[in-house]
Amino acid sequence: MTKKSTIAEIEKRFDSDVDRFSNIETGQSSTVDALFNMELITDGIAQLYPNLTQLLDIGCGAGNFSVKLLSKVLAPTNVTLADLSQPMLDRAKERTTPLTEGEVTTVKGDFRNLPLPEKSFEVIIATAVLHHLRDDEDWKSAFEKLFRLLKPGGSLWVFDLVAHDDPKIQDLLYRQKYGQFLTHLKDENYRDHVFDYIEKHCCPVNPDIS
What we know:
Elements: H1 7-15, H2 34-48, E1 54-58, H3 64-70, E2 78-83, H4 86-96, E3 104-108, E4 121-127, H5 136-149, E5 150-162, H6 167-185, H7 188-201, E6 206-209
Parallel strand pairs: 1-2, 1-4, 2-3, 4-5
Antiparallel strand pairs: 5-6
Helix pairs in contact: 2-3, 6-7
C-alpha cells in the first residue's frame, strides 16, 4: 500500500490546481458524472431550501457547487467556505460573493479542527472531500461534528468516491468501468495517473455518488 499523503501534501497539491477546479462547465471531470451530480445536488437543495440562509461548503475547492447553488436559491444566503487551500478559498470567495447579498466567509483548515458554530447551518455540502478520511474513528468523529453543525431540520449533501466491500464488484466498477471512463476521457497514461493519485491521496475507491 502506498503511503498516504499528509494534510500538508494535499494542501500543496490543491494550491497549485485552482484553475482546473474552477471549471463550472465540467466540474471535476475525472469523476464520473461530475456535472450531472453538481446539478442534481444543487437542484435538490434548492427544492428543499428555496430560502436558504446559511450554507457551509467544506472542502469547497474553487466553489463550483456553491456557485451553482446560489444561482438557484431565492434568499440572500450567508456562505461559509472551508478548505485547506488558501488559493482555492480566494477563488471561491471571488466567484460566490457577486451571487449573494449575504455574507461570504472563508475559513482555512481541516474542517474537523475548525471552530465552526454548532447548530448554525441549514445545508452542508461535502463534495470530493470525505474520502480523505482514513479510518473508522476518523469517519465517526467527522460525521458527529457535521451533525452538530447542522440546524434542526438541516441536511448534509455528499458527492464523493466510495469503495465496495465485494472485491469483484470493486474491480468491475473501479478498475474496469472507471478505468474505461478515464481512458476514453484522455488515454491510458491519464488513467494510470488518476489511479496513482487516488492510491496516494485517498482510500481505495470507486467514483460514485452517495
